[in-house]
């Protein structure tokens, strides 16, 4: 079993329902248990320079214990995203009903054409670091030699990240 952390985000449709549905789907995966859930944050959407603005995201992070390997977990995340209505062929920066990313997978570093763990933009995104710090602030990020709390304190991202009253499970 490996402890993994997955980022959840949504910026179209019923965003909170999408995040809650993802938590339920993650908990239903074979050999996987959801062990931690952050608060839900509302954040500005990242867009390419010159692109039209997009609706705000709801973001959260969940911790898992899983018997799946990182690539099997990635495939499962893609199925959950598609079940939530995400078009796998949509442009990378398009609005999305659900986005799931593996942030950390134990102490493993993975680098392939389909998966990079730790997430390559982890240290630059406050909207991911803030909820991750809630559930794994003292975790050392493999390959960076710093804890999640250290990365959050040094994060250059000044985008709006607001904790909401929403909870992932009622």
Automatic annotation (TrEMBL):
NCBIfam families: folK (TIGR01498). The keyword Kinase applies. The keyword Kinase applies. Gene3D superfamilies: 7,8-Dihydro-6-hydroxymethylpterin-pyrophosphokinase HPPK. It comes from Rubrivirga marina. GO terms for biological process: folic acid biosynthetic process; tetrahydrofolate biosynthetic process. Belongs to the HPPK family. It holds the Pfam family HPPK. Pathway: Cofactor biosynthesis; tetrahydrofolate biosynthesis; 2-amino-4-hydroxy-6-hydroxymethyl-7,8-dihydropteridine diphosphate from 7,8-dihydroneopterin triphosphate: step 4/4. This is 2-amino-4-hydroxy-6-hydroxymethyldihydropteridine pyrophosphokinase.
């Amino acid at each position: 079993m490996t402890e993994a952390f997955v980022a959840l985000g949504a910026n179209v449709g019923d965003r909170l329902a999408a995040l809650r549905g993802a938590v339920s789907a993650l908990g239903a995966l074979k050999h996987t248990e959801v062990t931690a859930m952050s608060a839900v944050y509302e954040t500005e959407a990242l867009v390419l320079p010159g692109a039209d603005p997009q609706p705000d995201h709801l973001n959260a992070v969940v911790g898992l214990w899983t018997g799946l390997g990182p690539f099997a977990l990635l495939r499962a995340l893609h199925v959950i995203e598609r079940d939530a209505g995400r078009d796998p062929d949509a442009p990378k920066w398009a609005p999305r009903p659900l986005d799931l990313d593996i942030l950390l997978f134990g102490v493993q570093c993975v680098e392939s054409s389909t998966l990079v763990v730790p997430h390559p933009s982890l240290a630059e995104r406050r909207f991911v670091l803030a909820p991750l710090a809630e559930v794994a602030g003292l975790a050392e990020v493999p390959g960076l030699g710093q804890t999640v709390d250290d990365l959050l304190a040094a994060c250059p991202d000044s985008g709006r990240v607001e904790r909401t009253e929403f909870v992932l499970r009622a």
